[in-house]
Write a structure and sequence with these properties.
The protein is elongated. It has a 6-stranded mixed sheet with strand order 21-20-19-27-22-28, with no helix packed on it. A 5-stranded antiparallel sheet has the order 9-11-14-13-29. Strands 10-18-15-12 form a 4-stranded mixed sheet. 9% of the residues lie in helices and 40% in strands. A hairpin with a 6-residue loop joins strand 24 and strand 25. It is mostly beta strands and 386 residues long. It has 3 domains: 117 residues, Immunoglobulin-like (Sandwich), CATH 2.60.40; 119 residues, Immunoglobulin-like; 124 residues, L,D-transpeptidase catalytic domain-like, CATH 2.40.440.
Length: 386
């Protein structure tokens, strides 16, 4: 007897779905006990929770086969637990019809079959999501995976359920972990920077996931990205230089100017969050309307709050000797363009020598925390090895 069959046989409390009986015209007394199948959820049941278990029971025989499939005939992988209930590997999809098909063999040696078709519930509250990096993107060694959620997930058990739904596969397995940045965002980073050439696939099995009272995911997400060359730039407010390394070798030293006293730049390990060749910087966005409004070129964002590495032709005289900016890293137009074209999203930019410390959460800032601090932000409290 298989493990599946044995587990299904001991399932109790099932509802009959019109299981099979022996051949018409035969005498059960002459044939011996006739196998009967009962399946829960019963045929025609509606509003079934996607994480509900399925039970199949045979009386007068043994269950020999069971499948669960949607209306398009796609079978669902699953297994039987210690409680005798079959559960899918990943939750069933909401608002979807599923058919359970089972087969049993009676003690008389005859086979009987049974089916039950049920429909999963339509969520009252929907959990939508977005992910970064972009699918197919080549990124720097410091790039985290961001899962952004449309609704807050607050309870630890629900956050743990979200983390268990996330699968990370790596071409070069390394230790990493998920960590909650806010109620609506959880990020994944490796313990150390990504290995160069790493290929990472992330699948978020969110369809059918219960993430809170009445809150259900309806759509899975997935992406694949690769890790490009190691680009690490170290910017010093004291030497007024940005030293750029590729795979450990210095490729360029750039004279820069950082934030003037009172507008200090952030110190800390940041990443290149995004790139924009041409933007308008407006001091009103940082609560200082009228201070400045200027178009800038070759912008590499370092924080959500508005720190960029960008071209500043007006400060070339100070670049390499003093700090005169409003907090950004100023460089000449030629050097800023070179840096813009060189940089990948996720490249490391480390700033030192200022009195203002980078705050965790000011954009994707996974390296602002130690590994122990990062791991403490996981609802599961354990690392992932892809």
């Amino acid at each position: 007897m298989s493990t599946l069959t044995a587990a299904l046989l001991v399932t109790a409390g099932c509802t009959s779905s019109g299981g099979g009986v022996g051949e018409p015209g035969t005498s059960p007394q002459a044939q011996g006990p006739v196998a009967r199948l009962s399946i829960t959820p019963a045929d025609g049941t509606k509003k079934v929770a996607p994480d509900t278990g399925i039970s199949v029971k045979a009386t007068g025989g043994q269950v020999t086969k069971m499948t669960v499939a949607d209306a398009k005939g796609r079978t669902v992988k699953g297994s039987v637990g210690a409680d005798g209930m079959w559960r899918p590997q990943w939750p069933l999809r909401p608002s979807t019809a599923y058919t359970v098909s089972a087969q049993a063999t009676g003690t008389d040696g005859k086979q009987v079959t049974g089916e039950s078709t049920f429909t999963t519930l339509k969520p009252k509250r929907v959990l939508d999501s977005g992910m970064s990096p972009l699918d197919g993107e080549k990124v720097g060694v410091g790039m985290p995976v961001q899962l952004l959620l449309s609704q807050p997930v607050t309870a630890r058990k629900d956050r743990a359920a979200v983390e268990r739904s996330l699968v990370v596969r790596m071409s070069q397995p390394v230790e990493g972990a998920w960590s909650w940045v806010s109620d609506r965002e959880v990020q994944f980073r490796p313990r150390e920077y990504w290995p160069v050439g790493q290929k990472v696939t992330v699948v978020a099995h969110l369809a059918g996931l219960r993430a809170g009272p009445g809150l259900w995911g309806t759509k899975d997400r997935s992406l694949t990205f690769t890790v490009g060359p190691e680009h690490i730039t170290k910017v010093s407010a004291e030497t007024h230089r940005a030293v750029v390394r590729k795979d450990g070798e210095v490729v360029k030293t750039i004279p820069v100017s950082l934030g003037k006293p009172g507008d200090d730049s952030y110190s800390g390990v940041m990443i290149a969050q995004e790139k924009a060749a041409d933007i308008v910087m407006d001091s009103a966005t940082i609560g200082e309307p009228g201070e400045y409004r200027i178009r800038t070129k070759w912008n590499v964002r370092m924080t959500y709050s508005g720190t960029f590495f960008h071209a500043a032709p007006w400060s070339t005289g100070a670049q390499g000797s003093s700090n005169v900016s409003h907090g950004c890293v100023n460089a000449s137009p030629a050097n800023a363009r070179w840096f813009y074209e060189f940089t990948q999203r996720g490249d490391i930019i480390e700033v030192t020598g200022t009195s203002r410390k980078l705050e965790f959460g000011n954009g994707p800032t996974p390296w602002a925390k130690s590994w122990e601090e990062w791991l403490a932000g996981s609802a599961l409290g354990e690392p992932v090895n892809g």
